[in-house]
């Protein structure tokens, strides 16, 4: 994965704070799953689920991601997809915790030198459940059944393991 980013990025999930976030002044914007459709000037998107990657490619009537949005694609998915977008290829050697997309991307970002992550739409870290209206409008809700409690634990573990400084943007609104 030969990628260059600033040491400070904005990582975007699908929580309610996504609806009211002011993007002015934010740097590189990395979106998880369908949040890529809701982030203005999205830099890159990551998904590991085939149904989301199918949407990114524009299959089954979904809107294809703009070609300027880089896609962080797992190496094993190369044989199934032929994106016109720039690709950031990664494989499991870059990732210790493969539990879900958020901890995966935190680990990937750390391996390319990111030190500060601004978390937008990660309200579940403070037990604030639900999805942004923008996500509901595009039917991008996930299948998580525990209000992201387990995933939040893995997010915190990844932040600590990778020595990332988190900025929880939903706390600043």
Outline of the structure:
By secondary structure, the protein is an alpha/beta fold. It contains 4 helices and 7 strands. The chain has one domain (8-171).
Describe this structure in words.
This protein has one domain. The protein is an alpha/beta fold and about 170 residues long. The model has no long low-confidence stretch (mean pLDDT about 90). It has helices at about 50-55, 100-110, 135, 150-160; strands at about 10, 30, 45, 70-75, 85-90, 115-120, 165-170. The chain is globular. About 20% of the residues lie in helices and about 15% in strands. The chain is built from 4 helices and 7 strands; from the N terminus they run E-E-E-H-E-E-H-E-H-H-E. Strand 3 (about 45), helix 1 and strand 4 form a beta-alpha-beta unit. It has a 7-stranded parallel sheet, covered by helices on one side.
The number of E-state strands comes to 7
**Low-confidence sequence ranges:** none
Q: Return the domain count.
A: 1
Structural class comes to alpha/beta
Q: What characterizes the major β-sheet?
A: 7 strands, parallel
State the strand order across the main sheet.
5-4-3-2-1-6-7
Gyration radius, in Å: 15 Å
Shape: globular
Q: How large is the share of residues in beta strands?
A: 15-25%
Number of discrete helical segments: 4
Share of helix among residues?
A: 10-25%
Mean pLDDT: 89
Distance separating the two termini: 34 Å
Order of helices and strands: EEEHEEHEHHE
Relevant terms:
alpha/beta, 7-stranded parallel β-sheet, 4 helices, globular
